[in-house]
Every structure is written in structure tokens, then in C-alpha cells.
Amino acid sequence: MDEPEIRPVTVLTAQPAHERTDAVPDTARLAVRMVGLCKRFDERWVLRDVNLDVPSGTYLALLGANGAGKSTLLHTLAMLSPATSGTLNLFGLSATRPAPALRARLGMIGHQPMLYRDLSAIENLIFFGRLYGVSRPRQRAEEMLERVGLTNRARSPVKTFSRGMVQRLAIARALMHAPDLILADEPFSGLDVPSVLALQRLLAELHAEGKTIILANHDIGQSLDLAQRVVVLRSGQVVSDRRTLDTDTDQVTREVIEA
Amino acid sequence: MMQVIQQIALLTGKDLRVEARSRQTLGLVVVLGILIVVVLGLGLGPQQVASGQAATAVLWVAYLFGGVLCFEKTMAVERHDGALAGLMLAPIDRGVIYAGKFISNLVLMVALALVVTPVAVVMFGFDLSAAPWGFALIMAGGFVGFAAVGTLFAAAVSSSRLQGGLLAMVVFPVSLPLVIASTQMMLHLFRDGEPVGGAGLAVLLAFDAIYLVVSWLVFEVILEP
Amino acid sequence: MTKLKKTLMTGYWLVTLALFAFAIAVVFAWTPIEATMGPVQKIFYLHLPIAINTFLACLVTFIASVGYLWQRRQFWDDLAVSSAKVAVLLCSIVLLTGMIWGHSAWGRWWTWSPRLTFSLVLWLLYVAYLVIRPSIESRERRALVSAVYGIVAFLDVPLVYLSVKLMPDIHPTSIQLAPEMKLTLLLCFVSVTLLTVGLIAARYRLHRIESAVGAGLDLPTPTKVPITQPGDAA
For C147, what's the count of Cα atoms within 13 Å in the CB-facing half-sphere? Predict the structure, then answer.
């Protein structure tokens, strides 16, 4: 019995991605290079031939409907699960097969805080700092708590925190080891307005420090305000990739909802 | 190598710290263990209690159920709030995550045994003094294999929703060789007064070695955030 | 299915069943009656080949489980569960024939003899495989847990064998086989093996269809890729 072979459809971008951004990057300066990346869950392709070059220091927003493949793309970037085919390079080094050493240069803010609720804020940070081999983890943890404004709650267990505080601590956790590439998977969902603004400001600061940021988001207007570059995914394919300066909300909305 | 040991110690230390703070698991499994011993003691009746032979079987039942609860709980800690993804993002080997969890489970099981065994010994009039070290050796061999399999399946089965009983259904049949081998050895040891050794110990050690290696290999592939 | 495939399948079953019927006939009509056990000994001609085929079915489950972890394709899981079902069926027969044997030899339906215990534990191992599956809702997780279990259970088999050897075995059983007996045994083995392979294949086909239907329901409609079998259009 022959399996019906479902092939990834080759897409679509008229030009290679990097020609659409400001400068043509040399590969050493690329934080991310994806070539022909495909990911299959069983018989279903969730990423189809994704090509993406992200120069260091870029603030990129990843848009798409639910199930378009945003989370899968971020998971693949974070080396949480390997791609089915294609190649992935991070900072010029191969990450097609998960490479533990490269993980130290990534920081991820996900749907979930990835914290231990029975431990205190500072215990959580010190634990993850040690896991990443951060030198002087206690000092670094105190710095990070100050940065996200949780110093006065350092010794409270996480389970006593509000949603916004948990999210701030999650960000501190993701930044404990000073990663160069920050992956944020819908970090704004479920936050109140002050927390959203604080997080936006924090991401902008990190970008100003020269970090590369990839933000999966579904608020189109907000993404265009925050990022330099916006990539739209639909059914696991990149359908557009352009600078936010050249584009407007309606256009991106149409691309997201396939009009 | 030093680094790997440090990482494992860090993970186990974190698990034990979480347990110390939440005090969820140990109290639960110890009381469950005592309950099992009591229920079986009542069910077997006074004549059986005197024989002492039933004690190893009773102990195994307590260890099996208590152990499965330990495996479930220690993995639930990771599933809650996606902490496991945090571990998977860190620059450590998947094998290290397995080893850390395995040792945490082993520590909890030993703690369980340290309470439940004396209770069973008293209630069943089981004379351990004939061969305490033989007993400890056999049980240690059993625990290592049981925790190896249990840790593996806890990671595979566990999802955000706790599926009661499922883990037990997976781990119990697989652990039967351990139960058969160790109960047979206990009979030889305490009824016949033969020393521990030979074939029985070889089965236990083979079980331990095979499942530690297989789990370490498989863990790499099955771990999902 | 193509016509050719259908013809081949029918042919396979006809040959298998004919051979099996012939083997049974040979067992009863041709082979001599064993001296100590009497006619009950004839169970042995089924018992041993089925026991070996139980092991083969477990092996198929093991290989398919490894395949699933390696490639994460649903058909590996379908194959694993198909052969596990056949393994349980065969193991049940082994267990029952073993009990009948034990009853006529020692007058009791159940003894904790190493061999019977071994069959029982093996049976439990694979029954557990089948009963845990429905309680896992997600298809991927079910396949994943099953695959890990399929590997662990198979590696367990030799350990179970070694551990039951520690139990006291008071009933040595060894039979001197006459040449006719050996030939009959061979014939039975071939036909039972063909039967096993056929059963696994039939089960597998059924599970493939089921999971194709399941997958179709999971897919979001716009990107849905129709699942076609070659020849369906005809």
C-alpha cells in the first residue's frame, strides 16, 4: 500500500528574504539562517519550506493565525524539536540537530512561565542561572529582579504571584544568562495594560542593546509598531516578509487571513 | 564529567527543595504505604502475620504503589507551568535531565522504604536481623530498576492532566521480573538461609543496567515540552 | 486495493487455511500417540509453534515501536498495535494449552511452575499494552507511550524468563520426539507462522484505515489533503 506522499509546496516569496531588509547581511552576522525548513507531525506538514535569514540585532515579528506554524517555528528555533528536513544555522553554527552548547545563546519567553511555583523568585532564578553556568548566579539574579521590578518579592514563592508578576519573573528567567537571541511566543497574551507596556519597553531596551528578537504575536498593529520586520506565516509557509516601514495593517491583515 | 555530575546534583537538589517546600509527595506515599501494610495485615489474618514470609510481598506492594505516586508527582512538578520546557531549553543533555529525575525518585523511594519497612517488620513479626544487608542489597537492586523504568514512563505518559492509574498500569507489568527475582531471593535468604548471590542478583543487575541504558537512549527522543 | 492485491490476499489465505487444515489432519491421523501423555500430547504440536510465533509477534511490535520513535510515522504505531493484538491472541492460546497440558499431567489447572508463570507474565505484559492505549486521548501521545512500552516490554521478555527460572521447578518435562513427530511439528510451525503473518497483515490494514479516517478528522478543512488509495477512483 503506497502512502500518499504529501510534499511541501515550494513557496512563494518572490525574492530571498534578506534582499527585502535594509542591508544584505554576510552570513557570519546572521543570528538565524533557515533553509528549506520543513516540519511534519505524522502525515501533516506544519512547516513547509521555510527560508528565513535574520541578521543579528533584528527585531522581527512573526504573525499568523492560530495553527499557522508560529509556535512550531519558534520551537524548532529553540531546538526543542528537530526539523523533519532542511537546515538551521544559529550564529553561523549548525543547529539542525539540537546542539546543547548553542542553547546557552537563546532565551525563550513562552506561553507558560517555565518556573517552579513552590520555589521563591530568587531560588528560581539562581537555579536556572546555575543550569546555564552563569558565574555568580545570586548577584545576577538580584540584578535581574531589580530590572523587572520584583526585588521586594524576591523571597516569596512564585505561587503567590499575580499573572503579571509571574510573566515578569519568566522574562527575568529567560534573560538570566544574557542570551543573544530572544524568542518570545505570544508573551503579551493574558497580561494587563501596565504589564504589556512594561514588557514592550523591556523588549525595546533589549533590542537597543543589540539583541536579536523574534516575537510571535497576533496583534498586528502592535507588531508593526514594535518590530523592524514582519514575517507572515500561513499553513506553515512564509507568505510575506517585509520591513514594517513599508507596510500597513490592512495589508498584513489580508495576508494573515488569506484574503 | 565533573560538569555533568554538578548538573545532575543541581537538578536533584532542586527536586528535593521543591519537595521540602511543598511537602506533597513524601507524606502522601508514606501514609499510603502504611495503609497498604495495614490492609494486607488485616486481610491476611493473624496466622499469616506470624509467618513473616508474606512480609516481602506486602512490602513490594507498598513500594510499587508508593513508588508510582513518587514518579507521578516529581514529573507533575515539571509539567506545571511548563518548567520542563525550561530545562529542555538549557544547555544540558537530555540524559542529565533523566539522571536528575531518576535520582530524585530513588531518594524519595528510599525515604518511603525507611518508614514503611520498620512498620511492616513490626506488624508481621518479620525477622530482618538474620540478613539485614542481604535484604537491603536485594531491595536496592529492585529500587534502581523500578525507578529507572518509572522515571522513563512518567516522562512519556505525563501530560498536563494527571491520568490516575495509567502510570501504574504501564509500570507494574514491566516490573514483574524485579518482583519475581527479589521475592524468590528473599525466600532463599530468609527461609532457607542461603546467602544472596548468583542468578537472582544477576537478573536484578541485568534489569537495572538494561533499563538505565535504554531509558537514557529513549529519553532523548521522547521528551517533549 | 487493486484487483491483483485482492487476488493475492485471497490466495494467501486459501493456501494458509488449507495448509493449517492439513496440518491438523496430520496431527490427528498420522502422528503416533505419545506413550506417557497419551492423546493430550497432541496439543504440543500447536502449543510450541504458537509459542514461537507469540515471540515473533512481540518482535514485530518491538521493531515497529523502534520505527515509530525513529520516524514518528503513524503506520509504525498501527503495525505495532496490530502485532500486539495477535501476540495477545496467540499467548492466550499458549496459556490455555499450557494449562490443559498441566491439568492432564499433574491434575491441576494452575501451578506456579516457571513455564506457566512465564506465559502468564508475557500475556499480562501485552494485555497491558492493549488496555492502556484507549485511555490516552491524544493520538501522538498514545503512539509515543505505546512505542516506549513496546520496546521496554520486549526487552522484559528475557528478564522474565530468567527470573522465573529462579522459581522451583518440580516437574521436568522432556519428550523424545519420533521422526514423524518432528515432521508434523515442522508442518504445524509453517502453517501457524503463515497464519500469524496473515492475521497481523489483516489487522494492520484495518488500523491503517482507522487512523486515516482519524487523521482526516483532525485536519483543518482548507489544507486538508484527501487521502486516496490508488485504485479508489476506479
Answer: 28
Question: Would you call B83 an interface residue with chain A, using a CB distance cutoff of 8 Å?
Answer: yes
What is the four-CA torsion angle of C38, C44, C46, C52, rounded to 10 degrees? Answer: 180
The CB-side HSE value for A171 (13 A sphere, CA atoms) comes to 26
Span A48-60, pLDDT tens digits: 999 999 999 999 9
ipTM for this model: 0.88
Interface of A with C in 6-45 (CB under 8 A): 6, 40-44
Is C130 within 8 Å of chain B by CB? no
**Which of B83, B81, B218 shows the shortest CA–CA distance to B151?**
B218
Q: State residue B49's pLDDT score.
A: 58
Give CA angle at A53 (A47, A54), nearest 5°: 110
In a domain, C47, yes or no: yes
Domains defined for chain A, CATH in brackets: 30-105+180-259 (3.40.50.300), 115-178 (no CATH)
Task: Give yes or no for A259 touching C (CB within 8 A).
Answer: no
Q: Please give the DSSP secondary-structure letter assigned to residue B189.
A: I
- Name which of B116, B38, B39 is nearest B70 in CA terms: B116
Domain of C206? 38-168+177-213
Using CA atoms, how far apart are residues A223 and A255, in angstroms rounded to an integer?
Answer: 14
Q: Is residue C22 part of a domain?
A: no
Residue A232 parent element (H or E): strand A229-234
Contacts of B80 in chain A (CB under 8 A): 117
- Model pLDDT for residues A64-103, shown as the tens digit of each residue: 888 888 889 999 999 888 888 899 989 888 888 778 888 9
Q: Which of the residues B89, B97, B219 would you substitute to probe the A interface, choosing the one with the greatest number of A C-beta atoms within 10 Å?
A: B89
Count the domains in chain C. 1
Where along chain B do its domains lie? 2-222
Q: Which residues on chain A are in Cβ contact (under 8 Å) with B10?
A: 127, 130-131
Q: What is the 3-state secondary structure (H, E, C) of chain C?
A: CCHHHHHHHHHHHHHHHHHHHHHHHHHHHCCCCECCCEHHHHHHHHHHHHHHHHHHHHHHHHHHHHHHHHHCCHHHHHHHHHHHHHHHHHHHHHHHHHHHHHHHHHCCCCCCCHHHHHHHHHHHHHHHHHHHHHHCCCHHHHHHHHHHHHHHHHHHHHHHHHHHCCCCCCCCCCCCCCHHHHHHHHHHHHHHHHHHHHHHHHHHHHHHHHHHHHHHHHCCHHHCCCCCCCCCCC
Q: A20, A52 in Cβ contact below 8 A? A: no
Per-residue pLDDT of chain C (234 residues; tens, 9 = 90+): 678 888 888 899 999 999 999 888 888 888 777 777 777 788 888 899 999 999 999 999 999 999 999 888 889 999 999 999 999 999 999 999 989 888 888 888 888 888 889 999 999 999 999 999 988 888 888 899 999 999 999 999 999 988 888 888 765 566 667 788 888 889 999 999 999 999 999 999 988 888 888 765 544 444 444 444 444 443
Q: Which alpha helices (DSSP H) does chain A contain, by range?
A: 70-77, 100-103, 121-131, 137-147, 163-175, 193-208, 220-226, 249-257
> For residue C108, with 0-12 CB atoms within 10 Å meaning exposed, 13-18 middle and 19 or more buried, which class applies?
exposed
Domain contains C137: yes
Q: Residue C184 domain-assigned?
A: yes
d(CA C80, CA C107): 38
Cα atoms found within 13 Å of the Cα of residue B116, Cβ hemisphere only: 32
